[in-house]
Amino acid sequence: MRIDELSPQLYQLSFEVGQAYLWRDADSLTLIDTGTAGSGELIARSIERLGWSPEDLKHVVLTHAHEDHAGAAAEIEAWGGVTVIAHRLDVPVIRGESIAAEPVFEGAPEWERKLYETKPPLPSAPPARVRRELEEGDVLNFGGGAHVLGAPGHTDGSIALYLPRTGVLFTGDAVANVGGRTMVGVFNTERTRAIASLHRLAELEVETACFGHGDPIVRGASAALREAAHSHGTNG
Predict the structure, then answer these.
(1) What is the mean pLDDT of residues 178-198?
(2) How much is the pLDDT for 236?
(3) Nearest C-alpha neighbor of 218 from the set 234, 227, 206, 201
(4) Structural contact between residues 130 and 124, judged by C-beta atoms closer than 8 angstroms
(5) pLDDT tier at 235 (50, 70, 90 boundaries)?
(6) Phi and psi angles of residue 10, each rounded to the nearest 5 degrees, phi first
(7) By C-alpha distance, which of 10, 6, 3 is closest to 143?
(8) CA–CA separation, 140 vs 156, rounded Å?
(9) I want to staple 92 with a disulfide (CB 3.0 to 4.6 A). Which of 98, 102, 148, 234 is the partner?
(10) Which secondary-structure segment (H or E) carries 84?
(11) DSSP state for residue 54 in the 8-state scheme
(12) Cα–Cα distance between 177 and 193 in angstroms, integer?
C-alpha cells in the first residue's frame, strides 16, 4: 500500500481498491474508513512506518457500510482500545444484521452500470462492533472538532466529515475525483439524493477534500466541488 502525507496531520493510505485517511492529533490517531477485509495488518504497519503505534489509534469513523470502506473495521476493533463509529442508518449492515441495498441506476449514465457489472468482487466485510452511532450534526473529538454531515444517496447512512478549523472535508463516496474530474460518486441507491448531497458539500469552505475514490485535492478544493455541483445541476 502507499502512504501520502497530505499535511503534517493528515495521511492517505491507498489500497488496491479505495483508500483510508489517518488524522493525527497530539495525543491520538483517528482513522477514516478501513479498506477491504484483510487491510488491518497493512494499516498497522503503516502506522508504525509513520512513527506511531497501533495502540495510538483510538477511533475508526466509517463514512458508510460498503465492504471497501468498512471491511477491516472488525480487525482493527479487535486491537483493543479502538471505538468504531458510524451513522445509525448504516450500522445494521456494519454489524452484519442486514445486507446493503443494491445500487439503482435510474438516471445514471450507462457507463456507470457497465462499470458496476464488470467490477471485480470484493471480500465480504466481517461484522464489526459499532460502539457509537452518529446522527446529523454530531461533532467528533478530533481535528479540532469534526462535524458529521449527512450525505445520503450512496447509502442511507452515508456521511461526510468536515473540519472547519482546517478546511478539510472527508466525502466518503458522496463525491469522487477520478481522472482529474470531480463528480458525484457512483453506484448510488438514490441518485437524486446523492446529487443533493454533492450540492450541500459544495456550499462548504473547503481547502482539502479527501475522497473515497480518486486523488485528494489538497488546495482550493471548494472550486472543484462547486464546479462538480454545477455540472450535475439539480437533477443530475
Answers:
(1) 96
(2) 47
(3) 206
(4) no
(5) very low
(6) -130, 130
(7) 10
(8) 20
(9) 98
(10) strand 83-87
(11) G
(12) 19
